[in-house]
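In this section we turn from sequence analysis to structure. A common task in structural bioinformatics is to predict how a protein folds when a small molecule is present, because the ligand can shape the pocket around it. The inputs are simple: the amino acid sequence and a SMILES string for the ligand, here flavin-adenine dinucleotide. Study the lines below before reading on.
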Amino acid sequence: VEEYDLVIIGAGPAGYVAGLRAAQRGLKTVVVEKDYVGGVCLNRGCIPTKTLLESARHLNAIKMAGEFGIKVGNFEIDAVKIWQRKNQVVENLRRGIDYLFKARAVNFLKGRAKLTGKNLVEVKTGSGISNLEAKNIILATGSSPFELPGIKFDHERILSSDDILDLNRIPKSLIIVGGGVIGCEFASLFSSLGTKITIVELLKNLLPQEDPEISKTLETNFKKKGIKVMTDTKLESIAPSENGIEANFSESTKIESDLILICVGRKPNTENLGLKKVEVEAEVKGGWIKVDDYLRTNLPNIYAIGDVTGKILLAHVASHQGEITAENILGSNKVIDYSCVPNCIFTFPEIASVGINETRAKELGLDYGTGKFPFRALGKSHTAGEVEGFVKLLIDKHNDTILGAHIIGPQAVGLIAELSLAMKNKLKLNQITDTIHAHPTFSEIIPEAVFTYFNLPLHTV
Ligand SMILES: Cc1cc2nc3c(=O)[nH]c(=O)nc-3n(C[C@H](O)[C@H](O)[C@H](O)COP(=O)(O)OP(=O)(O)OC[C@H]3O[C@@H](n4cnc5c(N)ncnc54)[C@H](O)[C@@H]3O)c2cc1C
């Protein structure tokens, strides 16, 4: 039996970051991973999707080049190369994590782990069974695609997000079931690459978690690009057809397509993890592992972090939980604050938000005001040829601080960082406008949105 201060199960952004921080602070740490380091984020999530989207972004730029006075001759899309590049980026970043593990003396064990006692972890490796004894254990096993009842992934025509990332080709047509973040990003990707897209959402709007104005703007933009958007629609059944798949929706709508991608949610990876045996509590509904504000489970030396806790399924939340947990194991009492987590959606156009949206502000009966400014009124937008979209701020009328910020438009995912910092630190609006923002940049939209809240806009009337 090998003894450790800390055994971490899962090397996704939650587990590997916890491992780096713990080892850096002197804990004898081992990270166990059954698959590849980096987890979903690096291998089947954030990084591969964004790498493919970068190829699509280059393609969109080529299509727009004429507007900028540049004639592009014949060009071709090389799908195999696009996917190869994605694989190369993933591999390079995996090597980066391996390097960090070695440099920081984080032990790494490849194998499937399960709890066999409150301080014991059994790992099935390629060469047998290893038993680890741990003062502390972190469960960071992540999540997997959720299957709709009665509709199994066949991995050929009925695909999960994992499957489509290995497609290596551009389908002629694709139905995307689920208009959340993942569904909308894939819609942007494949529509740019020339696939005929139908996106179907059960609820009233695409991106139902976002501010309704943002969702509506995205829907209009998608429709303009020829993406068929079906909201308030339920997938009833799927059957194979001559050329692919036939999907039947509510109100007898039938659509035929090459492929169907189902992205309707995630489920926690807790199967055969030994939770029952060791009596780690999980939620009855959904099975997510229960944790307190310090990320501790019901057992004092066992923690859970990342997607498996079902809190907010984002890589930066997972990593932040990892950092906090490592510090808490070392004796801190750090509490996690979920109130201003930036949410970035890498669609074309980009979307980003932090804090509450207007629907929530109304539900809470808050006394709020709004400051909204269009990208069209910025010099930078015209230089870049990207004039669509806006920033919308929700302001607490009592203390002039930000309750929520919502952006759709160019560089939204970068711009949100300033608003997250302002919100987390409860900056007053005048502290934002007193900060000089460089010209011409998209960042100028933030003080402009604040001026609009005060009814003192500079570049709109
Ligand atoms: C298509 C897609 C796109 C996404 N894009 C973004 C994005 O742009 N930005 C963002 O913030 N988030 C994004 N996410 C979400 C993000 O990937 C997850 O929130 C993040 O990966 C969660 O990290 P984690 O460490 O909790 O779990 P995971 O990344 O799921 O890692 C868990 C690891 O544990 C391992 N494991 C599980 N069980 C065991 C066991 N018994 N023994 C050993 N190892 C085990 C798994 O193999 C896995 O490697 C995306 C997700 C998807 C699916």
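The pocket of flavin-adenine dinucleotide is lined by residues 9-15, 32-35, 39-41, 44-46, 49, 112-113, 140-143, 161, 182, 269, 273, 306-308, 313-316, 318 (CB under 6 Å). As an exercise, try to locate the residues that line the flavin-adenine dinucleotide site and compare them with your own expectations.
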